């Protein structure tokens, strides 16, 4: 059809236009504003923010009434439906400042809350006054005043009337300390409402695919049926009996009022299913809406999601960097639910969860209002990053105090997260509120100490001389004397060095291997152990969380006490040995690299020095974590200061805080897609995916698919490989292996010219 439409075609004023089979369709602006206001209020009602959200929704697109924007829509005539919704590109007309400026004029300083929400609803939350591009400067510009004047002249009176809305800053959940989170929650309510209403007009089929999830009562019934089947099939062993008691204890404690809980269970005690049992029962009893399971590593998230999907079916969504790597793993409904976490069970990463809580971008903030009134399980809670610990603990306190969230800290080695007072106020930790231990004081399990006694499956042997370093050759000789043994070292270089000294057939695991390669090796290890075949493995610490291996002997290079405990969880895991498994701690030839690893080693030496008892005595872990945290900057990037609101101006630096809150510092990282073709070298999947990419098909799912074949290395290593002709830069920032010798079938990507070469013919 003709791309030119008359003024009458867009009367009343349009929010969006699109061309369908029946011709031009117009989304009336007044309808869009009213519907976004309604949806946003519904999203915010659970935390008492409905009035603010409704008003923000009513004025968020006020600038679209201006004649310039309506002319823009006429020119677009729906041919670029998606572009008609987004401002900021060439030929587009600003529309998100008018409502923000009106809010400031109508409500004074309190109106700045609405200004943040409205002005940011496409570009992401602004800083108020950090620099010349901040929101304060934008609102003061002549262009913004012109936008408001034109919008006021064209908008109907009912849109401009704010009715009975009276801003009350004294009712903010958490007061000034909670201002930044509260505003991000309101922002989430607004932008999700805007996306959903726009989608309902632009793509009715997509909108219809959302929702219709089973309720938690239905999921609980499915869980019970699954656990009954597991219990019937499980052999009657002391470990399995204890797992049953742990499960029963979690369910018995589910009736306790919402708040913060710890689940302290030794590795191999069944924490994953026990914590889900607590979460389902607790949510059902207290009217909470969903369970969010947060896992520290993408390397283990898929197996956990698969466990839950085997119980709950499509009611589980995965949201992490590999979630779209296989279109067969998800449906349209689950893919859409990842946008805003509108599903009953969400499995995600620590990076996704915490970076979203401190985000500024609309796409990341959309989900926040769905965290409200949920149960959040933090798996392997000891891995909370120390340099972000203060802001993380503060936000967990706010969520549990004011947003109906229950948090479960699940780990075998509970970190010391209670309030800590020090002479140096910079070191003081505010701590979590009234943490209750699920394994304490119930009918099934008396105390965590009893659990550790009953689940003792290993004997830990410490170095006789903490100052004496063991040569790799001597260590290799010890390892070779065992038919099946796991050795865990601190660095990838150490893993390659030790592996080269061990007999042929020894397996290797490190992050220089892509995810698909590591998964194949782990499957091989499990198969060999199950068959009773000799199995020697050298690995970095990537096996210490969520990888269920069961060796009779484990060697661990000196590291943090929590790492030693996690390594011990890979020894005699099922308690099948006639006696105790053996865990040997050794001092490696090289000192730990500077940073958290070295600090953990130092704290471990300090705690264990002169200790004659069990090195895994539960009482030692609080001392260990206190010493570790005291050595660290617990708000290294100044997040709390950036998010502290100025009581007079309501100034907050949202965007600056979001840019600094990065749990993974990828500024010095480069991604290399490697040519891993499976254990037998015949799997052409990566070649097929790369061919699709080279043909111009850089779709999101395709880039995600290639992440299973990606290794992250330092920029300087990437530049050296590039200069050598081993890799090429296929897309900006994405490198691809081109040399057949750059990726080793055992060790992975070869980045160190001095690295040892494995024996010829070694087969994994």
Shape: globular
Find the CATH superfamily of the largest domain: P-loop containing nucleotide triphosphate hydrolases
Instruction: Tell me the β content.
Output: 5-15%
What structural class should be given to the helix and strand makeup? Answer: alpha/beta
How many beta-strand runs?
21
Q: Tell me the name of the CATH class of the largest domain.
A: Alpha Beta
CATH architectural label of the largest domain: 3-Layer(aba) Sandwich
Q: What is the chains' assembly state?
A: single chain
The end-to-end distance, rounded to whole angstroms, is 61 Å
Tell me, rounded to a whole number, the average pLDDT: 87
Helix fraction bin? 40-55%
Question: What's this model, at a glance?
Answer:
This protein has 764 residues and is α/β, with parallel strands linked by helices. Strand 18 and strand 19 form a beta hairpin.
Describe the structure.
- By secondary structure, the chain is an alpha/beta fold.
- It folds into 4 domains: about 5-210, Orthogonal Bundle (Hypothetical protein af1432), CATH 1.10.3210; about 215-450, P-loop containing nucleotide triphosphate hydrolases (Rossmann fold, 3-Layer(aba) Sandwich); about 455-615, Rossmann fold; about 670-750, no CATH class.
- The protein is built from 30 helices and 21 strands.
- Helix 4 (about 100-105) packs antiparallel against helix 5, helix 12 (about 240-250) runs parallel beside helix 13 and helix 24 (about 595-610) crosses helix 25.
- The longest helix is centred in the N-terminal third of the chain and has 24 residues, at about 180-200.
- The chain is globular, with a radius of gyration of 28 Å.
């Amino acid at each position: 059809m003709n791309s030119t439409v008359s003024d009458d075609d867009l009367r009343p004023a349009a929010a969006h236009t699109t061309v369908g089979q029946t011709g031009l369709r117009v989304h009336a602006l007044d309808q869009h504003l009213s519907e976004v206001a309604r949806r946003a209020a519904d999203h915010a009602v659970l935390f008492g923010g409905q009035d603010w959200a409704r008003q923000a929704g009513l004025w968020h697109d006020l600038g679209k009434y201006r004649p310039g924007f309506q002319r823009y829509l006429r020119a677009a005539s729906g041919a670029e439906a998606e572009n008609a919704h987004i401002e900021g590109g060439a030929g587009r007309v600003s529309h998100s400042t008018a409502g923000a400026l009106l809010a400031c004029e109508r409500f004074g300083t309190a109106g700045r809350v609405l200004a943040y929400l409205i002005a940011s609803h496409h570009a992401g939350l602004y800083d108020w006054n950090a620099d010349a591009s901040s929101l304060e400067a934008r609102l003061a510009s002549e262009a913004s005043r012109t936008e408001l004047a034109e919008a006021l002249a064209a908008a109907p009176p009912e849109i401009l009337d704010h009715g009975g809305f009276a801003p009350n800053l004294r009712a903010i959940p958490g007061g000034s300390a909670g201002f930044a989170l509260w505003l991000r929650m309101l922002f989430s309510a607004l932008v999700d409402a805007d996306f959903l209403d726009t989608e309902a007009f632009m793509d009715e089929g997509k909108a219809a695919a959302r929702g219709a999830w089973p309720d938690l009562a239905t999921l609980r019934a499915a869980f019970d049926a699954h656990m009954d089947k597991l219990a019937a099939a499980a052999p009657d062993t002391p470990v399995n009996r204890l797992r049953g008691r742990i499960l029963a204890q979690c369910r018995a404690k589910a009736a306790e009022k919402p708040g913060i809980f710890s689940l302290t269970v030794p590795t191999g005690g069944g924490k994953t299913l026990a914590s889900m049992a607590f979460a389902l029962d607790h949510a059902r009893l207290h009217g909470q809406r969903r369970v969010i399971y947060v896992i520290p590593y993408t390397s283990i998230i898929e197996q956990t999601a698969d466990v839950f999907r085997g119980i709950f079916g499509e009611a589980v969504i995965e949201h992490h960097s590999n979630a779209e790597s296989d279109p067969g793993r998800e449906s349209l409904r689950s893919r859409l639910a990842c946008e805003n976490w509108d599903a009953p069970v969400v499995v995600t990463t620590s990076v996704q969860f915490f970076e979203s809580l401190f985000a500024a971008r609309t796409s990341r903030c959309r989900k926040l209002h769905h965290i409200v009134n949920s149960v959040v399980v933090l798996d392997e809670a000891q891995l909370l990053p120390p340099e972000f610990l203060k802001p993380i603990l503060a936000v967990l306190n706010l969520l549990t105090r004011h947003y109906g969230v229950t948090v479960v800290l699940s780990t075998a080695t509970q970190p010391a997260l209670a309030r800590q007072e020090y002479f140096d106020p910079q070191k003081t930790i505010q701590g979590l509120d009234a943490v209750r231990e699920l394994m304490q004081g119930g009918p099934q399990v008396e105390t965590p100490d009893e659990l550790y006694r009953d689940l003792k499956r290993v004997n830990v042997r410490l170095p006789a001389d903490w100052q004496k370093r063991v040569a790799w050759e001597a260590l290799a000789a010890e390892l070779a004397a065992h038919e099946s043994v796991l050795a865990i070292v601190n660095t990838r270089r150490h893993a390659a060095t030790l592996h080269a000294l061990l007999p042929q057939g020894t397996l290797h695991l490190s992050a220089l291997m892509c995810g698909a390669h590591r998964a194949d090796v782990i499957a091989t290890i499990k198969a060999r152990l199950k068959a009773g075949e000799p199995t020697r493995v050298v690995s970095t610490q990537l096996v210490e969380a969520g990888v269920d291996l069961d060796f009779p002997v484990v060697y661990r290079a000196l590291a943090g006490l929590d790492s030693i405990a996690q390594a011990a969880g890979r020894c005699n895991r099922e308690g099948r040995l006639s006696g105790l498994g053996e865990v040997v701690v050794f001092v490696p030839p090289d000192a730990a690299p500077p940073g958290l690893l070295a600090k953990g080693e130092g704290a471990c030496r300090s705690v264990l020095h002169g200790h004659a008892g069990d090195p895994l005595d539960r009482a030692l872990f609080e001392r260990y974590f206190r010493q570790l945290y005291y050595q660290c900057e617990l708000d290294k990037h100044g997040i709390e200061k950036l998010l502290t609101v100025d009581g007079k101006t309501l100034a907050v630096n949202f965007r600056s805080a979001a840019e600094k809150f990065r749990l993974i510092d990828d500024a010095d990282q480069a991604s290399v897609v490697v040519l891993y073709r499976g254990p037998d070298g015949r799997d052409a999947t990566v070649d097929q995916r790369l061919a699709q990419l080279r043909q111009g098909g850089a779709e999101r799912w395709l880039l995600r698919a290639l992440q299973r074949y990606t290794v992250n290395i330092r920029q300087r290593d990437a530049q050296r490989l590039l200069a050598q002709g081993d890799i090429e830069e296929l897309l900006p920032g994405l490198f691809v292996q081109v040399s057949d010798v750059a990726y080793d079938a055992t060790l992975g990507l070869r980045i160190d010219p001095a690295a040892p070469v494995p024996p010829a013919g070694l087969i994994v």
